[in-house]
Amino acid sequence: LARATFTRSGVHSLVVARAGYDIAGSPLRLEVTANAASPANCVVDARPLASITPLVTSSFSVTTYDRYNNLRTVGDEDIVVTARVHLAPGQAGAPPPPAYETVDGTSLYVSNGRHTASYAISTQIVTRGGQIVVDIKLNNGTLPGSPFAPHLLLVSPPIATSSQFSSMARTILVQFDQNTDRAGTFEPVECEYYFEAASAETLGDGKE
Prior knowledge:
With 208 residues, this protein is an all-beta fold. Helix content is 2%, strand content 34%. A hairpin with a 6-residue loop joins strand 15 and strand 16. It is rod-shaped, with a radius of gyration of 28 Å. Strands 5-7-11-10 form a four-stranded antiparallel β-sheet, with no helix packed on it. It has a four-stranded antiparallel β-sheet with strand order 9-8-12-13, with no helix packed on it. Strands 1-4 form a two-stranded antiparallel ribbon.
């Protein structure tokens, strides 16, 4: 009984000899294919994951390798992309709030071990201290560099078009030229949240 272990994919020539003489059929021509994909050895092109613009699809590539660093060429891997948008905690030191938006991305096999993955978010505003997290997994294993934290880019930041105090001058309503999701706030907040300290002080106490 003879055994041989190959760790490199490709075409190999296997010589089987006994007492210095090749046996019948030797050398044998063997074609070795890559083993199952190893998440730890796969490569993610992280450059497109540095930033994300709302409503604009972001695409990046994943190249798959097996445990011996052989390039996978089958394309049957299950690449899962999940993007989560987290708003800032309500108070300093508070645990992160649940994801404000969760999006499942897509992936498509191209060729030669290369996959193209894509995702998009719709949230336009992430408050100070909030973040976007992109998880990338292959066959339930986390890929190198994941989770990624892309910086949020705005195509056209909201511009204030008008502002008006209430009749009692205790609140101020600011209107913008586009939807803003209120910077992640859904109840009245103290003016210090939006204004510089010097400006907020001129409004007096109890302003919101």
